Amino acid sequence: MSFAADFPKDSAFNKAKARYFATPTDAVVSALFAAFAVWILWSLANWALLHAVFGANQRDACMATEGACWSVVSTRWRIVLFGLYPFEEQWRSAIACVVMVVVAALSCVPWFWSARRLPPLWIAGFAIFYVLMRGGWFGLREVTEQNWGGLSLTIFIFAAVSLLGMPLAIVFALLRRSDLPWIARTMALVIDVIRSLPLLSIMFTFAIVMPFVLPDWAIGDKLYRVIVGYALFFACYQAEIIRGGMQALPAGQEEAAKALGLTYWHRIGYIVLPQAFRNALPPTINQFVITFKETSLVTIIGFFDVMASGRAASGNADWNFATIEMYVFVALIFFVFVFTLSRYGAYLERRLGVGRR
User: Which CATH number is associated with domain 77-352?
Assistant: First the structure.
């Protein structure tokens, strides 16, 4: 009797054997790959954990070790999270970030999934975030946008783009489906033109070119001009995603709603949009993931976001040998946010049965 016979046919051992060791060739390939994976994991653990330096201000110890120098993170983490924000006021930036994270977490609760609850939640959370960051009210010291930076600036840009871009995307999608040809074609032209341009060129246009063509009273701060341009870019892509979700609906549903005497806005609000967002859930989650990651592009036009802050934290003479560790830390920050959002999107797909027939 073989050793495998001692296990049930549906056991993990027999499943692994059938999948990876079914033939001698499969067994050799699986063994080589497993050995390579073990070597990679051991080398990574040896560098990142076993021979690493973790304590703050341990530059000399870092120079003497072959492992990772996490001391640069322990020493300079405030720059990554808060950028140029005044040291004594960084508690405000930290609370502001926590507020937006809590808002995002509450958005995952089904009770908030309505047009009467979700927008007020985000507007209130964003208002609290802005008041804490900007100050000037309630006895808080004023801190201008030029001193914002790090993770808090990244979250601010992402939240502002989402708040402006999503309603604009819904409007664009509805105009794109208008029964009036001149409205639908004009909107299609606008969407196609903006989608054909790189995001970086749009950011440069709103940051550098717009002040030359706008009146003085409409120029505003460069940060807000960039956010408006980014929101317009987001809205054009998201509008096509929403329109695709609308086109997936059976035509008979809207015709039945018309036969029942429902008005246009009742048909859109209660029948079309809820199902369109359900159909468009996977690409919508993907669009939010891309939007969060592409906030790092603002470093090119002079903003001190989390990526630029990480580069600055390890860019001085004392820590310029530890750039890899700092970039790993920044990558971990992005990974936590993006992976959490992706897993929540997968959970929603399972919960709502997206893609099932």
Answer: 1.10.3720.10
Contact, 49 vs 70, CB < 8 A? no
CA distances from 84 to 191, 227, 258, 294 (A): 36, 20, 56, 21
CA distance 216 to 117: 37
Residues 6 or more apart from 122 whose CB is under 8 A from it? Answer: 103, 107, 159, 162, 163
Q: Which two tokens stand for residue 24?
A: 């001698």
What are phi and psi for residue 56, nearest 5 degrees?
A: -75, 150
SS3 53: strand
3-class state of residue 172 by DSSP: helix
CA distances from 287 to 281, 299, 345 (A): 10, 20, 11
* pLDDT the model gives residue 1: 46
**pLDDT for the residue numbered 114:** 80
User: CA separation (Å) from 189 to 8, 236, 316?
Assistant: 62, 11, 48
Query: Which residues of the chain are under the pLDDT cut of 70?
Result: 1-11, 13, 354-357
Neighbours of 204 (CB within 10 A): 16
Q: Length of the chain, please?
A: 357
Q: Where are the domains of the chain?
A: 4-50, 77-352
Give the integer Cα–Cα distance in Å for 254 and 249: 9
Secondary element (H or E) of residue 193 = helix 181-195
Look at residue 36 in the predicted model and tell me its pLDDT.
94
Element (DSSP H or E) covering residue 175: helix 150-176
CB 53 within 8 A of CB 68: yes
- 8 Å CB contact between 266 and 244: no
Q: Rounded to an integer, what distance in angstroms lies between the CA atom of residue 200 and that of residue 320?
A: 28
